[in-house]
Amino acid sequence: MIVAGVDGSASSLRAAAYAAGLARRQNARLALVYVQPVLPPGAALGAPVVEPTDEIADSIAAEIKESAERVRATWQVRWEFHTLRGDAYTGLVTAADELTADAVVVGASESAGHRFIGSVAVRLVKAGRWPVTVVP
């Protein structure tokens, strides 16, 4: 099982494509995991808090599913889509543990806030539970 974290960003979609290729070569299943944020990323840095709505999260999830369906036809990969709620790191750790991941693939952070709280990718690598590939 290859777990790929997706959030709709360009780097996460590149990570999903990389993970699809990896899953195809290894004849493994691909789990695309989208973690719906409880608070917007800027809230930790003092930015005004605007509550994310379920409609927005559902819209992002639908867009990711649609993109993944297009990749599926191209890569011929067995895949599944999971949505969790919480912070990205905890969600990906939970998904990887529950799905008994052989590897985790994530996109490189595009946020400046990771300098204060650490990027999800760096935190996953430090956890050391699975091989982690960070795709730029």
From TrEMBL:
Name of this chain's protein: UspA domain-containing protein
Protein's organism: Streptomyces laurentii
InterPro entries xref list: Rossmann-like_a/b/a_fold (IPR014729), UspA (IPR006016)
Pfam family, one: Usp
Domain (UspA) ranges: 2-136
Family: Belongs to the universal stress protein A family.
